[in-house]
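Homework-ish question, so no full write-ups if that breaks the rules, but can someone show me the predicted structure for this set?
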Amino acid sequence: MPEPFLQLELDAAAVGLERIGRLRARMEKRQASLCSERALAYTQIFQENRDKPYIIRKALAFAHTLRTMTLYLEPEALLFGNQASRSFAAPIFPEYSIDWVIDELDDFEHRTGDAFAVSEQVKHDLRGIQGFWHGHTHEDEVKRGFSAEMDLAAAQHILHRGGISMSGDGHIVPDHSLIFQYGYRGLIDIATAKLAGAKGPQRDFYEAAIISLEGALAYIKRYGPLLRDLAAHEPDPARVTELHDLADMADTLLEGPVEHFREGVAAAYLTHVLQMVESNGHSFCYGRFDQYLLPLYERDLAAGRITAESALELLTHFFILNSSQNKVRPLSHTTFSQGYPLYSNLMVGGYRPDGVDGTNELSYLCVEAMNLTRLAEPNFSMRYNMDTPADLLRIAAKLIRSGCGMPSMFNDHVAVKGLVDLGIPEADALDYCAIGCVETGVQGKYGHRATGMTYVNWGKLLELVLNNGTDPDTGIQLVSLNGQPGTDIDFASYDEVWQGWEKLLKFYSDLAVGCDAVCDRSLEKYDASPFASVFVHSALEQGKTLKEGGCEYDVVSQSNTGPSVVGNSLAVIKELVFGQKRFSFAELKAAMADNWQSVASQRIRRDIMRLPKFGNDSDAVDEIVKAVFDSYLKLLPEYRTVRAGRGPKVSRYTMSTSNITSYVPNGKVVGATPDGRFAGEPLNEGCSPTQGTDTSGPMAVINSVSKLPNDQVAAGQLLNMRFTPMTLAGDENLAKFTAFLRGSLAKGIYHNQFNVVDAKTLRLAQKHPEQYTNLIVRVAGYCAQFVSLMPEAQEAIIARTENAL
Amino acid sequence: MKGFISAFQDYSTKDGPGLRQTVFLKRCNLRCLWCCNPETLEPGEELFFFPERIKDAQLALAENPNLAQTPDGWQLDRAGLPDPEAVLERNTQPIFEPVGQWVEAQECARRILRDKAFYDASGGGATFSGGEPMLQPDFIAEVQGLLRGTGVRTAIDTAGNVPWESFEKVLDATDLFLYDIKAADSGLHKKLTGVGNERILENARLLGEAARELWVRLVVVPGLNDTPADLGRRLELVAHMGAKVTRVDVLGYHSLGVGKYRRLGREYPLHDVPALDPAVVEGTLTYAAGLGLPVHYEPGLT
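A: Not a homework solution, just the prediction itself:
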């Protein structure tokens, strides 16, 4: 590394760069594996406590795990805290689902992406507990709840019942200031006081919260002896001092308020790790890290307890350690979310609740820390607005230019308006953060995934519209457009096609909301998460978990994949079939069925490809894509979550295009589409133009996207762009790029993220993966190691239009 | 009125300050040996040919009587081609792409205006380039008229080989001229571009007198116009153009246009261009600085 820092003038010698280099090198080469300790501990406790309420059993099992699991310290690290017995080992969560784990046990290590090593002992352990859990998991409960129609819609590949149908929810951003103010001990005291007057489920909640927090405190204390033992065997005196300091911190951390920067970072990290022992949801996020840590940072800096350099060193260790956690998903879900993602979002910049821009020294230090980290986690994001200092945008652009895909940029003006329009008070809306990928919510007040409940494959939905509601692959028809069975249908006008779209969209969206409810009802029991709940308002006040309605805002969304493919396709039908009458609907359908192979089909496709597509600032097609968004938005006011009226001040559905890698598997099951897409090719990603169809340049892309109802896609509108490194090289180009960001802000773009890497490099990485373990790419709303992705996802990333000059 | 345009280029970063929309006007009255935009030279609509896109050889042959498959690859007899529209219509495979379209001034202004947020954020604007945009001054003037009052700033990227009267048509509405001086010696200029440079230098002088902001561009092609003597004289000419020259770009040669010649069925005029001597660049920059010129160097990319 020739220049260690992007922008700040710091004393490099004081940052411990060599040690950071070793830490991150170990993390880059780490191997994923499975760990059975949590699964065994939970099994034991569940077997011993059959008569207790479920939430108590979960709390007891959590605490028992924390008291007994193997602890280790990441070599040389300045922080402790581990999720499983080894670095990058994924614990197993049998209460959520177990059968797929056993079914895939021998296949994990042979996956083409997201592989896991599994030892024979772990296989033996897990096989041994399957019988206890089989039939009694969240997944089983969910399966029992699905209607026949829901199952058929899933068989049609329209609905993908995602992570929450067999694992926990996650998507929680604790109120870190609350944790700092009380410590876990103070929260125990609050729960204990509340317990006195509580009855029934409330009483169970407070008891479970106390058990969980006590377990967490015991876990932290267990590090004291471990660290002192390490110190006893450590030859380097400087390291011995560090280990003793860490041990002293372990003795008292979170037993009271958190008053120092070092403890604050440790508390945020441990809370994160512990949530990932409690639940196998993901997107446990740090929220507005530079805001809530600032008072501790400033105080310690003034007192001379830390320097900017020592703070940067600690932050970098903390960032790097986020790659030591892991999550295992079934193969069918992995294709939707590749690259071992945890979506641990950490956000900097943006307005404070009082409307003043909150950019501060820590915002910059975090960018520098991410630059030193260059790993896929944490998922690093930045808020910006008209008042963001030019300096902060510049350092962000420098990090983007370095090619690590971060930070992704969020437009305060659009995101805040989206939340305010949902009924969230402005001061809270101004305190939003990313929760996972591009989904946003208010830190410490949201309790559920803002997006990614049930996935709806809009590419497939379109295919059904053109086939009279029948899926050509399976022959399944749940709704007929013309009253007849089968795939035959003719349309007399474009309006009829559009009506068909609206009809099926409503039918399947209703069904998807039903699926969400099935999952949510089951999660209420199986994903009770008393530990995570106490950090979010107002679970402690109400005496109920987040899943029971113990949060202030309950705003959720599904994930709708492929709006650009749908809009482009409808534009083709409107213009070429019914406008110019270049070919008939029957001819178009035959050409699609033929996957554009015959000469006649090719000629139809040729005409199609000449029609402008979304992303080229062409009003005709852009208006149709907008109409596709609007057709979904207008359904939302009708939808309710299962928590409506049970506690949250705002409880409703919104929209999101945060669809992680689902555009790849969703595309795989969709035949050729009228936009000229071949069968099986990926759908478009988020609200981005379909890969390779935006040929007019990045400003045209922004202009097209700016026509969408971005401020109503309040759970996140994902736009992904790729620039070549030379477009950003040098100071002048960097300034032009930051101006491009400001232009996007003015244009009302919700979010933008960038891959700065050329196609040649990506091809080389495919060929020589071992040499490119450091290549981090933007996948969708998150980053991943390029070489860890499956080949199809790699191709989709390469196909993204490269903006080069 | 309409202008004949080869392309609009979004996110242009090399054609003036800030982020720009560059309008490439088609037709040129110079024939610079190193030209990297050969598709902007001729006045008519042309076709790019992409033999690598031929997936079905039999189909391509059946649809194109003037196409042949030889051991050296695909050969296209352009002399026998019908008009571009007919070629595009008869081909099933996307092996031809047209270049050159008549665009109404109104439409051109509308496209430019769409990117105003980016111009405002970056201090950018629109640039008319080419080809030689000054061969269509009435069109440019009309577009500029339509942009009046919108706050969009415009630049013209010209080689200057047109009657001064053409400049008079756009003088008032143009915020910046990007002005090429390709050689100081007129004989050398004629050898490299097909025309002498007397009118070009005279127009440069008049633009300086008219106090129009100028960015002067000095392209340096190794072996052709990279002698310290000619470069020095070019810089001296620039120094005499006055204080409105706010930037001098020394542009290194690049060969990024080579593929376009092949796609147009033309020979690339240059072969085996040696690498630019760093000492020449350094000497040029030092000399320019000594003359008080605000000089920048943009290395070529090969």
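Now go work out the reasoning yourself. Hint: Chain B has a mean pLDDT of 94.
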